[in-house]
Amino acid sequence: MTRRGNPTVRAAGIVVLVVTALLGSAYLLGRSLVPDQPQRQATGVNTNAEGPYYADQPTGDGPSGSPTASASASPTEAGQDGTGRDSTGGQLFGAHTSTGTPRLALTFDDGPDPRYTPQVLAMLREFDVKATFCVVGENAQAHPDLIQAIVDGGHSLCNHSWHHDVTLGNRSADVIRADLLRTNEAIRAAVPDAPIVWYRQPGGAWTYPVVSVAQQLGMTPLHWSVDPSDWEVPGATKIAATVVSQAEPGSVVLLHDAGGNRQGTVDALRRILPDLTARFELEALPTDPT
Question: pTM of the entire structure?
């Protein structure tokens, strides 16, 4: 004779199973209604300019093992190629991206640096090439002898802000003006009569206020058209190959003589300079860009 279970216990068990099934269905339905959260992407922007790595350095550990600061949220520079120019539409607000002539211009950012700038100057002298150095104010103040060496070599100067603040363009006009004037004063403390008629915004993060203030101070905003991303330290071969393959009449080439390990850039010049001088006339950007 088969024994029947307690009807009350059986009913309770069925209720538990039904409730469990309903809760599971509700959970899955709720998950389907919540959009997937995007992965956070590193921007390659480091706004800490107090250390040896500036805003155009990758996040994480630098090439010599020094930690860099975390990425800044705004404005981004998207790898120093200018694609993150401005949050209102990616505009350059009139910043120059070419020389406006068949001549090609080499530009060196973030210096001067006592290790790499003298090597760059020696290489340029060897090939009789004049270039433009976009200098950071605090570095100009720390190394006035190198500012003098740049000018003595026949190269032109460009203001690159006081401490390479990528977010400078988001600040008030008064703050921007004070930053640019402070940088000019540091440059002129080393070379009192040197003209400073160019300004390059760190990270290429152009905004209307920073362009406007630079122009009010008599400086022309300067961007670039060839970027080998040497700030990522890809090695001399890759840096040289990018510049040589992308250069064309009127190009403004972005390179770095400071802000991190720049030996790859220096070594790349050994290939870049013979090639470019054979195909183009190279110039330091003029001190009267009008």
Answer: 0.73
Tens-digit pLDDT profile for residues 218-254: 999 999 999 999 999 999 999 999 999 999 999 999 9
Q: What is the pLDDT of residues 161-174, one digit of tens each?
A: 999 999 999 999 99
Of 109, 165, 179, 230, the catalytic one is 109
Place of tokens 């890809």: 234
Higher confidence at residue 61 or residue 127?
127
Choice among 113, 165, 256, 257 that is catalytic: 256
96 is catalytic: no
Q: Is 109 a catalytic residue?
A: yes
Listing from the earlier edge strand, what are the strands of the sheet with 220-221? 220-221, 196-199, 156-159, 132-135, 105-109, 252-256
